[in-house]
Write a structure and sequence with these properties.
- The protein is mainly α.
- It has one domain.
- About 60% of the residues lie in helices and about 0% in strands.
- It has seven helices and two strands; from the N terminus they run ααββααααα.
- The protein has a two-stranded antiparallel ribbon with strand order 1-2.
- Strand 1 and strand 2 form a beta hairpin.
- The protein starts with 10 loop residues before the first helix and ends with a helix.
């Protein structure tokens, strides 16, 4: 999968923002988009509000990392945190605030399609900012999560080269161990 290259201050920052942003989009945001569709189908404003807020902040965090190039790590290699507002321009902050307000004001099923469309557009715009020339693989699909895992494993080589935090939880990348009972 090709990537559009943009100037960045240094290679490690570019790699960090693109790989972690892509990882978060594939692992977290795509699943949240599917959950959002489920909330629309269920006509459940509270569920849509909760999922929508989380998804909008996930996308803001990805955009922030792409702009600022910063990753904030915690003790677990997979737990990479972002300031979801750092690096966003005034228009993005206003758009995010408007989406968050729209979700907060949602009281009944009537407003669900409109606000869900805005959250979805914000998420799609975020994926577009990652710069890939085709849609990212989806973890939850009938073919399984292997295309997404393959992409993440390819990223792991360059991520480890720059000593950046892991993209996937360690339990996803290590071979399964048979218990004593399974070996009998």
């Amino acid at each position: 999968m090709a990537h559009r290259v943009e100037p960045f201050s240094d290679v490690a920052t570019y790699v960090a923002s693109r790989t972690h942003g892509t990882s978060r989009m594939i692992i977290l945001s795509h699943g949240s988009l599917e959950d959002l569709e489920g909330a629309v189908d269920a006509k459940d404003p509270l569920l849509l509000r909760t999922i929508g807020w989380d998804l909008a902040l996930q996308c803001a965090a990805i955009r922030s990392s792409l702009r600022s190039g910063k990753l904030f790590t915690t003790t677990s290699p997979f737990e990479v945190g972002f300031d979801p507002f750092e690096g966003l321009d005034k228009e993005e902050i206003a758009e995010l605030q408007s989406i968050m307000d729209g979700l907060g004001e949602l009281e009944d099923a009537e407003g669900i399609p409109g606000i869900a469309a805005r959250v979805t557009a914000f998420a799609q715009g975020t994926e577009d900012l990652l710069g890939w020339d085709e849609p990212l693989p989806v973890v939850r699909n009938p073919d399984g999560m292997f295309p997404a895992l393959k992409m993440m494993r390819e990223f792991e080589q360059i991520v480890s080269r720059y000593d950046l935090p892991q993209l996937l939880p360690e339990s996803w990348t290590q071979p399964a161990h048979l218990s004593d009972r399974d070996q009998e």
